[in-house]
Design a protein that fits this description.
Strand content: under 5%
CATH class: Mainly Alpha
Largest sheet: none
Distance between the termini: 14 Å
Order of helices and strands: HHHHHHHHHHHHHHHH
Radius of gyration: 20 Å
CATH superfamily: MFS general substrate transporter like domains
Number of domains: 1
Length: 408
Amino acid sequence: MSNKQSQKMNDDSKGGEFSRHWLLVLVCAVGIGVGVSALPFYTQGIFIEAWIADFGWTRAQASLGILGSTVALAAVLPFIGLIVDRYGLVKPVMISLLGLSVAYVLMGMFVQSIATFIALAMLQAVLGSASSPLAYTRAINTVFNKQRGLALGIALSGAGVAATFGPALISKAIVAFGWRGAYFAMAAFTLLVGTLVVIVLSRLNGAKTPVDIDTEAASKGFKLAKASPTYWTIMAAVFCLSLGLGGLMIHFVPVLLEVGFVTSEAAQIAGVIGIAVVLGRLLVGFAVDRIFAPRVAIAILFACTAGVLALALLGSVAALPAAFVIGFSVGAEVDLIGYLVARYFGIHAYGQIYGRQYSTFLIATGLSPVILGAIRDATGTYTASLFTAAAFMVLSAVLFAKLPKFEQ
């Protein structure tokens, strides 16, 4: 890191970080909330029943869109990370939010079969790739040091807002306009909010293209990171965590329907996940500035495991607490990835390293709904799926326990 960058971080850490950059944190939260990793993901489960009714798909087939989109996003994010490391985030975000809006329109118009569904879901991910947390968290990590965890938590809580209000609003849109009309509504909303996000970002110094990029240091930092066992341990822990949580998010409404709730009740309970996501990101961000981050991850994973097992064994009476601990854990995961990457490997190659770590998270997130859906199709209930998710989370906690102390 250059002396200029170090001095800037030291100056900011003397109490001025949030007073200088609060608007950047706020607009990053809004951008993440409408981005490709939030609104489409948290509302996907609402569409499942409509697709089953229209096309006769199984739940595993209806989950293939998430798998396709996450694999496609995982494939392009390392390249997007390199672009953001070199050119900043304003232009990539602008192009991606416009592309995401176009993709929603295409989804509403042309989905007719599993093949077109998967192809358009993959196109949606590619077009919207720079609206993922990658670009926004790089900007946050660049200007925050002492309060980095809290700043990341606040910014990433935008996804929790999407999870809170998205399912209920999309459910109402499907009732009013059909599931195709709901996609058109998502397109209009994303275009409107995305325009405001880009306008504000273009005026903020923290979001502008850096003028002193050290490409040699970035290349060296990326090579050193890949040679580190810590890099691969984080990747494995994130992979297992996402195998557990990803499918729970997509199938949570169908799980609730299976244990006796009606659709409107299930959507309201699913909204608790969004509230918990926000709380998880804020509290975890606050905690990791003070407590060793892997220990925070382990505690959250064991709480989530307990909630999932309670839902499997007790059914509807455990639905509300299970929704809360699942949402809280989802709130922690992306926050932890960005924080751990910056603390272990620095900021020079952040986009490239985070892009690959987040790609791993996305691949597992895409596989998880298919795995849990296939288990549900094979067994006739979600009980075995919930036990499988719990096992993945326990394995993730074991891997987090192997991470070394941060270098001071």
